[in-house]
Amino acid sequence: MTIDKNLEEITKNNILIVDDHPFIIEGYKNAITRYKPKEYDFLITQAKDCKSGYEIITDPATASFDIAFLDISMPAYEEKEIYSGEDLAKLIMEHMPNCKIILLTMYTELLKIKTIIRTIKPKGLIIKNDLTFDELLFAFDKVMKNNTYYSQSVIEMLEKSPKDSIEIDQIDEQILFHLSKGTKTDEIPHYIPISLKAAIRRIDNLKGLLNVNEGTGDDLVKQARIKGLL
């Protein structure tokens, strides 16, 4: 009777891990399965890229996930316009809003980090260079307790944000979006309520902001993606 009672008290959690490095997935799994084994039972589902992650998240037969570990940089699924772990995170937010998202990245640019926090609001955000086995367990414990965890490098970057922060407004965001879809500069006023002269001025400002003064519109879009503006 006592054994049955203890088994009934074990909490089951569904975990999704999406990363294109199998050995990293194994590291996450080893840490997760060692977390309070007498209290929690974890069912872990894994995917290796944006395509397999998309298929799992959107599959009606897939159980809803409690926590998702997502690498930000992975092979894209261009057919569905899923280019990164951020896009998978947004998909999870749409399909299972109660899922706690932990994002892992090699990016160390302040703008990228601030954009992730602003758009995804992850429960965990970890720079991979900060990651050790013990640190992963600590982060997982914080998230399991419904707290937010940022790794040390993230905290240090955020502390620099008042002087280093780069912000753009909604018009600039729309311009970048349309440029990314192949819209020509002289066509932008058809989609956004601004003049062509204003559009050109904003594009020039964006190029200066992102250090692509001599680049093309494609170069601007590429840099905007890298810095988390798209």
TrEMBL record:
InterPro entries: CheY-like_superfamily, Sig_transdc_resp-reg_receiver. GO terms for biological process: phosphorelay signal transduction system. Keywords: Phosphoprotein. The keyword Oxidoreductase does not apply. It holds the Pfam family Response_reg. The modification 4-aspartylphosphate is found at D71. The keyword Phosphoprotein applies. This is Response regulator.
